[in-house]
Design a protein that fits this description.
Elements lengths: L5 H14 L6 H13 L11 H12 L4 H12 L5 H13 L6 H14 L3 H15 L4
Length: about 140
């Protein structure tokens, strides 16, 4: 697998989080788009490429090594100083529907370990994402 750009790697992590329960919901896909449109880390990213990158990620997931290969390659492409940002982007996608299925929790555990995000930092990121997505009703 060719080394993805940092932006591609961040998108890959959001896509695998969404796909982890085999159900990429409209709200998860919309959240990926919103992250790409609004987060400073994506300021120089061409959002027109988002669908193609997501499709590439889906193809990679079906190759030998699939998920493990995508995670390893993406984590290697993302600089250490952005590992917490990468984890936060993945959590945004998992938290958008206000419930984290076991598959998403397992994926986030793998991702946290691969990105070497400490437990306290991961918990803070998860808490903040859940708080952001709560509704009045």
């Amino acid at each position: 697998m060719a080394s993805p750009s940092v932006h591609e790697a961040l998108v890959y992590l959001m896509v695998v989080t969404s796909a982890s329960d085999r159900d990429m919901t409209d709200s998860e896909l919309a959240r990926i788009g919103a992250v790409v449109q609004t987060w400073p880390v994506f300021i120089d990213f061409d959002a027109e490429q988002l669908i193609a990158i997501a499709q590439d990620c889906q193809k990679l997931l079906h190759e030998e090594g699939g998920l493990e290969s995508v995670l390893e390659t993406a984590c290697r492409a993302i600089p250490q100083r952005l590992h917490d940002t990468a984890y936060a982007a993945a959590v945004e996608v998992a938290a958008v529907d206000l419930e984290m299925r076991m598959e998403e929790v397992r994926l986030l555990d793998k991702l946290r370990a691969a990105l070497t995000v400490s437990e306290p930092i991961a918990e803070a990121i998860e808490f903040a994402a859940k708080a952001r997505h709560r509704m009045l009703t």
